[in-house]
Amino acid sequence: MISAILTAALAGLLAATAPLGEAGVLPAVVALQALTAAGWFRLNGMWPARQGIALAFAGGLAADAALLLASGERAGEALLGTLGGWFLLVLLVQLRHRGSADERLDSLTATAAATLLTVVAAGHLAAVAVSEAAVTATGLGVAAAVLARSVPGPGVVSGGLALLAATGAGAGAQAWVADELTGAWGAGLGAAAGCCALIGLRVASYDFPSRFVHLTAGVALPLAAAAPALYPLARALT
């Protein structure tokens, strides 16, 4: 419940600051990227991993900077360019690893995956330049899904309730914000956000006993998983 409340608070912050544009959502996106970078290493049993966390987080910051400098139509290229450059940097850093072959492989895969997730989390920043309303609907959808999923009960039932709650939150966001988009786009975005949030929660549950995972990966992954779906959906709606 604590991680669900924290996730809902961060998602609500994204939704509330979306009308302020890229500068408004930037603090929430940076917080999401920091939690994603730290949580992924701990989820994979690699702690402390200060160098890897710093490298992944720096990749996220570089993606943010690239998006702020690029136009909204070039956001995809900005993210892909950042990923390409940072993967090369990850490979160069791994050349300094003096562990066994298995340790080097584990370090490489964890660092590369953390970098990918942290950079992709910037999709929320990219989407707000396309449709502020889409970011609001997605944020409220993720918040509703994680809160509903945290209610004790059979997994199938709580998962279904989470999707219904996310769809309803997205529809409510459509009624709340003034936007030129028509149709049931709010409900669709809410449902997509709910699906992504459930995937993120499922991944974070692999290290269930760890309280640190709950408060990092458990908070960040539902929102980070929604980012790659949010941007193309926002582009498709406009």
Write the layout of secondary structure elements.
Layout: H1 2-17, H2 22-43, H3 50-69, H4 75-94, H5 101-120, H6 123-128, H7 132-149, H8 155-176, H9 185-204, H10 211-215, H11 217-237
Helix pairs in contact: 1-2, 1-7, 1-11, 2-3, 2-5, 2-11, 3-4, 3-5, 4-5, 7-8, 7-9, 7-11, 8-9, 9-11
At a glance:
This protein is mainly alpha-helical and 238 residues long. The chain is built from eleven helices and no strands.
Poorly predicted residue ranges: none
What is the strand content? Answer: under 5%
Total count of strands:
0
Average pLDDT taken over every residue:
87
Task: Give the N-terminus to C-terminus distance in angstroms.
Answer: 36 Å
> How many domain units?
1
Main β-sheet description:
none
Computed CA radius of gyration, to the nearest angstrom = 17 Å
The sequence of SSEs as H and E is: HHHHHHHHHHH
Helix content: over 70%
- Shape estimate: globular
Computed structural class:
mainly alpha
